[in-house]
């Protein structure tokens, strides 16, 4: 499974209709939809599809046809996302009608092709399940610890300063096993 970390867009034309596909991280979906409706007020349709992992590691999917005949736009777009094993990713296709009706088969192909085209130009990151751990250290250990975490490409989610420092980190299980061997004995792992 893989996902995008930024927005990509691509324009596809079919019988004078223009399909502008925008592929983005799922958490940007609402923001991008509002932006695209403002940028393209004369577009006939704003079709969407998305897939994301919920807190139970289950894939949640949804799509919308936005006035196109039922099942001719959102579902084929979703099928392309699923076929490419994309998660935490959304696509919005802005359609400008070109005056020639495409028919149901033509719509299915056009929407599917527009999503495939934007996927071709996008760059993806392989999904890995992350765990959260807390590291507790003294102030004197902080700079060494932060340096070690940056060298190991481990994300620091938060820092809490009390009589000691609590660093909440996000990493894969494999990274955690490697990190344990590198930590000094003064650092507690919770």
From TrEMBL:
Coiled coil: none annotated. One of its GO terms (cellular component) is cytoplasm. Residues 15-119 form the Impact N-terminal domain. SUPFAM superfamilies: EF-G C-terminal domain-like, Ribosomal protein S5 domain 2-like. It holds the Pfam family DUF1949. InterPro entries: EFG_III/V, Impact, Impact_N, Impact_N_sf, Impact_YigZ-like, Ribosomal_Su5_D2-typ_SF, UPF0029_Impact_C. It comes from the Bacteria. Residues 135-184 form the UPF0029 domain. GO terms for biological process: regulation of translational initiation. PANTHER family: IMPACT FAMILY MEMBER YIGZ (PTHR16301:SF20), IMPACT-RELATED (PTHR16301). Belongs to the IMPACT family. This is Putative translation regulator, IMPACT family (UPF0029 domain). It comes from Arcobacter acticola.
